[in-house]
């Protein structure tokens, strides 16, 4: 992951290549040689799934493959701003429906501009999202990680939308693993861990991953047989003490509302935010579900992949532990505080 | 007040070290305060920075260094007490008040502080400024974040990409 971040940084700050440590530059050069045959077509890149970090990095490398050698790039660093504007012009020509920004007229002579337009098309869109102004654009990724530790998932998503560089940093596994584990406890289900923590976090919130299809079907038919819909029932808060539940596979369904609680993610409700069956046993440090009775591993597991996390903890001190949940909105409102 | 490592032979008087900023300004500061920097700590433990020799800090200018040292001097006593287990609530509140005011500064200064705290490895300061920047980001839309952090406005293409992602992540904006 660290290496990936270094690559992302190297490309995102291409114009400032001379200020980067040598390893960043050399990493990129290696990438260039390795991926040279890949070809970089702008339209093709537009179709890529920019959400995935892997594909993001791939596109960065591809875009680098058609970049001139680093020395050339350094020479042109000061022209980066105008070049980016011109890249916009190139892209606009392709789309034929957009008008360049107001400051698009700064772009040098026409002949030079045409040359640069060709360059822009060859490089594809990956060059455009680079940050070339603003103080905080020079912050290395590891420092952005420190900053992002204090953010809620909502704010992190906002950051992923800011630009490709921040997308790469804000998609960092350690951040999302941390959020996931603070929110849901350590995932004990191995099949859940096959996807990235960020996707896992989002998917769980998106109600997509919690149930096997067969169980989901059973739940669905059970709910329709009871006349329960997916509409949330207002004014009801599920509790292991007051509700009765029907069990289907790993799922426990509240017989009054049809809310589903799943062993392994047992405080989770597919219906709305009212489910709070997530209890941290202060004495043992274990997560308990009052419905399924399932007892979780310690929510901060000391041994599995936690080296980075532990470092974060040490650096961040105590103050940041509860901090990511300070956000408001859908996520903030359903967070169990402890 | 003096840190344990400032001891050798300097009965009572706190050992002082000299730090030299990138623009050649010399700062004399208690070793205990400078030792909040992990980077400087080893040098200082080895006896560096005393007497006429200063420790050059080519990556930190004088304005930033004075700000950094302001933090270090304020936090040194608590750090010397090993996280201040016996600190009073008043002391802690005072430090908190100091911290809040300390980061209530221009973005350019904040940026310099982030880099300096990183270079000097001052954990508390790193955390403090990171949290400040995070506070600036919190609750903002991607566009507002761009502006807050001084990024240029998105190109039309970037804007289209952002819009597409907004739809994709629509759940985060309900």
TrEMBL record, chain A:
Pfam family, one: F-box-like
Keywords in alphabetical order: Ubl conjugation pathway
Keyword Mitochondrion: no
Region of interest (Disordered), ranges: 1-126
GO cellular component, one term: cytoplasm
Gene3D superfamilies: 1.20.1280.50
Domain F-box: 133-179
Pathway: Protein modification; protein ubiquitination
Stretches that traverse the bilayer: none
Residue ranges with Acidic residues bias: 29-51, 69-78
Top-rank taxon: Eukaryota
UniProt xrefs under CDD domains: F-box_AtSKIP31-like
Protein name: F-box domain-containing protein
Organism annotation: Eleusine coracana subsp. coracana
Gene: ga14412
UniProtKB/TrEMBL annotation, chain B:
UniProt KW keywords: Ubl conjugation pathway
Coiled coil (residue ranges): none
GO biological process, any: ubiquitin-dependent protein catabolic process
Database matches in InterPro entries: SKP1, SKP1-like, SKP1-like_dim_sf, SKP1/BTB/POZ_sf, Skp1_comp_dimer, Skp1_comp_POZ
Family matches, as SMART domains: Skp1
Domain named SKP1 component dimerisation: residues: 124-163
Recorded metabolic or biological pathway in which this protein acts: Protein modification; protein ubiquitination
SKP1 component POZ domain mapped to chain residues: 16-75
Pfam families according to UniProt: Skp1, Skp1_POZ
Purpose: Involved in ubiquitination and subsequent proteasomal degradation of target proteins. Together with CUL1, RBX1 and a F-box protein, it forms a SCF E3 ubiquitin ligase complex. The functional specificity of this complex depends on the type of F-box protein. In the SCF complex, it serves as an adapter that links the F-box protein to CUL1.
Family membership: Belongs to the SKP1 family.
Assembly description: Part of a SCF (SKP1-cullin-F-box) protein ligase complex.
Database matches in PANTHER family: SKP1
Protein name per UniProt: SKP1-like protein
């Amino acid at each position: 992951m660290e290496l990936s971040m270094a690559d992302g940084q190297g490309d995102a700050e291409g114009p400032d290549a001379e200020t980067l440590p040598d390893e960043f530059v050399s990493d990129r050069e290696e990438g260039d040689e390795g991926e040279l045959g890949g070809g970089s077509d702008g339209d093709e890149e537009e179709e890529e799934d920019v959400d995935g970090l892997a594909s993001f990095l791939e596109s960065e490398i591809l875009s680098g493959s058609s970049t001139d050698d680093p020395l050339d790039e350094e020479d042109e660093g000061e022209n980066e701003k105008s070049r980016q504007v011109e890249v916009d012009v190139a892209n606009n020509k392709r789309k034929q429906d957009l008008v360049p920004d107001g400051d698009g007229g700064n772009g040098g002579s026409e002949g030079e501009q045409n040359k640069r337009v060709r360059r822009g098309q060859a490089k594809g869109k990956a060059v455009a999202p680079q940050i070339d102004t603003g103080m905080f654009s020079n912050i290395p990724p590891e420092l952005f990680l420190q900053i992002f530790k204090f953010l809620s998932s909502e704010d992190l998503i906002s950051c992923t939308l800011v630009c490709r560089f921040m997308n790469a940093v804000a998609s960092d596994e350690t951040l999302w693993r941390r959020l996931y584990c603070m929110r849901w406890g350590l995932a004990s289900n191995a099949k859940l861990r096959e996807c990235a923590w960020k996707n896992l976090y989002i998917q769980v919130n998106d109600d997509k991953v919690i149930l096997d299809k067969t169980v989901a079907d059973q739940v669905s038919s059970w709910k329709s047989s009871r006349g329960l819909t997916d509409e949330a029932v207002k004014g009801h808060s599920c509790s292991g003490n007051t509700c009765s539940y029907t069990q289907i596979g790993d799922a426990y369904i509240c017989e009054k509302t049809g809310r589903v609680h799943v062993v392994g993610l047992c405080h989770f409700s597919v219906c709305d935010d009212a489910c709070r069956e997530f209890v941290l046993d202060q004495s043992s440090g274990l997560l308990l579900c009052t419905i399924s009775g399932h007892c979780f591993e310690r929510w901060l597991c000391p041994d599995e992949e936690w080296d980075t996390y532990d470092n974060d903890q040490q650096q961040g001190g105590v103050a940041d532990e509860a901090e990511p949940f300070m956000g408001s909105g859908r996520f903030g409102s359903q967070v169990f505080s402890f | 007040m003096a840190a344990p490592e400032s001891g050798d032979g300097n009965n009572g008087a706190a050992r002082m070290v000299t730090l030299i900023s990138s623009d050649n300004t010399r700062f004399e500061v208690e070793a205990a305060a400078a030792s909040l920097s992990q980077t400087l700590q080893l040098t200082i433990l080895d006896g560096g920075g005393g007497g006429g020799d200063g420790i050059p800090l080519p990556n930190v200018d004088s304005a930033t260094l004075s700000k950094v040292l302001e933090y270090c001097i304020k936090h040194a006593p608590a750090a010397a007490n090993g996280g201040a287990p016996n600190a009073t609530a008043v002391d802690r509140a005072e430090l908190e008040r100091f911290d809040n005011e300390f980061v209530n500064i221009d973005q350019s200064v904040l940026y310099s502080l982030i880099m300096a705290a990183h270079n000097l490895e001052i954990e508390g300061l790193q955390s403090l400024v990171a949290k400040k920047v995070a506070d600036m980001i919190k609750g903002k839309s991607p566009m507002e974040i761009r502006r807050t952090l001084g990024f240029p406005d998105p190109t039309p293409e970037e804007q289209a990409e952002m819009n597409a992602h907004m739809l994709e992540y629509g759940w985060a904006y309900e």
